[in-house]
UniProtKB/TrEMBL annotation:
Residues 5-197 form the Fructose-1-6-bisphosphatase class I N-terminal domain. Residues 202-331 form the Fructose-1-6-bisphosphatase class 1 C-terminal domain. This is Fructose-1,6-bisphosphatase class 1. Pathway: Carbohydrate biosynthesis; Calvin cycle. SUPFAM superfamilies: Carbohydrate phosphatase (SSF56655). The keyword Cytoplasm applies. It comes from Christiangramia fulva. Substrate binds at D118, G119, S120, S121, N211, Y244, Y262, L263, Y264, K274.
Amino acid sequence: MERPITLGEFIIENQKDFPYAKGELSALLSSIKLAGKVVHQSINRAGLSQILGKAGKENIQGEVQAKLDIMANNEFINTLRNRGEVCGLASEELENYLAFEEPMHKEAKYIVLIDPLDGSSNIDVDITVGTIFSIYRRVSPTGTTVTDEDFLQSGRNQVAAGYLIYGSSTILVYTTGKGVNGFTFDPGVGSFFLSHPKIKFPEKGSIYSVNEGNYIHFPVGIKKFIKWMQQLNEEENRPFTARYTGSLVADFHRNMLLGGIYLYPQGSTAPNGKLRLLYECNPMAFLAEQAGGKAIDGKMNIMDIVPKELHERVPFICGNSQMVTIAEKFLKEYPED
Ligand code: P6P
């Protein structure tokens, strides 16, 4: 049997989708692939090499950083810097974005935003975590130092986005606006192989992912939607199934494959929700739309939001189009003041 195509072969094969690019985006995706392999290795050895646990430092989000968070952040920064395709990088782990000042970087046309290890609170209990990335063309003049406007672009301007999920296997899932494809890492060969071609959300979904511990703080429309999903209606396959891992990448990946919705609504303890627009919600929204799904903040499409600051948070409802549209209807029927 012929072996599946590798990620590298796939990138080259689809190079024609970028007639103006001289291979920089392909090289950029390859550096993300390389960094993903290194992080995969570290995560899979974490328990053995005693790098589990807290690094004793707080990141700008005030969350105690896990050692693997720091490792993953450094690995992606160094790999992306070394390849020279990126003029600037923003990360959940960094207060401000990094402007790469070397001449070859200033000539580069892409910027990257990453959540290097999303769901890292799960690391010590061996639950799936992931890396999320979002890629834009710079808007400031080539040859200059990147500026805020390069990073504060709406999600519609993304040229590529994706995630690595470090679960029972490590899979890299990404889109460049021509559909969503997933590649599973074979550690024995050291390559990612196409395992999930042209991913699409199923027409109907029956899984919902939300931290119901926050139920009391949710907007009325969300409460009504959750109760609706829990009502008995055999024809519509309700009650739906609750699945919530505390790791966005894991919940999103399962919902995209099997059909479901993820919600992180606003609440009194999180007035704008918890997830970050630039390096969690926008990349997942791009993937969701490319897979036939939908992503809203409750009022508008996530990718239409014009960011105001690097780490801004937004309420996030994302998944199968039909389910997100029903959630939207409940929010319209029970508007918050
Ligand atoms: P909570 C991880 O910190 C994260 O950003 C997402 O990966 C995850 O879905 C969510 O937060 C979990 O948040 O408040 O339910 O623990």
